[in-house]
């Protein structure tokens, strides 16, 4: 069951400049940064608010670490902007199986590692009215320690 | 001060079909529908979660009511997908003035009426790393009655 907007994934050419834009314009501070080699991105998480399921909603700023990554190819085609949206769930495995059973293409056979130790998968945007949609189960500590 | 992700605005060709996709796939139910003639959209708000500032986060599904509306033109160019993101604030007037003072173009001279009686404005996407960004102050009853 999807219980929150977990994050909005925003692709950018220069992570440091984009982080600075969000800080200078809105006062948003970076909560966490990491490099995800599997996804081919360097990313910054900006926490915007807590959510009623005990989690939080973030902006996820994404800079590709290589041109042939999914985000790198998307940026070359589309320019900067919203790359995907992500819903939080306590059970990414169960929800993925349920959604696959409804005929929506789930891009990974098994969830992979996302931001801050989360487990994630993606749904095909062509099956979701043009929206690349991620499902996220946060690592146990993430939603409780901060 | 921006205190929540208020909504993600998603442009679609057929609102009823898109509402049904979100219901059938995720179990999301429509919270509110309306036509905004000034914006040229028919819209459905799907409430996803409550937020730590006492508000809520929604998906806002948008179907243009005329081809020459902003969303109609955007759809013709881009196809279905994420059209904008919106941050909630208690003071859209003050935050708009503050952000305009930082050199970011604010699209309206004065906030206009948005979903559920809210007051809204938009920031130019070219000044926001490609993201059309809305600022929203909810109508007083909206965040407290539901």
UniProtKB/TrEMBL annotation, chains A, B:
Keywords: Metal-binding. The keyword rRNA processing does not apply. Coiled coil: none annotated. GO terms for biological process: L-methylmalonyl-CoA metabolic process. PANTHER family: METHYLMALONYL-COA EPIMERASE, METHYLMALONYL-COA EPIMERASE, MITOCHONDRIAL. Belongs to the methylmalonyl-CoA epimerase family. NCBIfam families: metmalonyl_epim. This is Methylmalonyl-CoA epimerase.
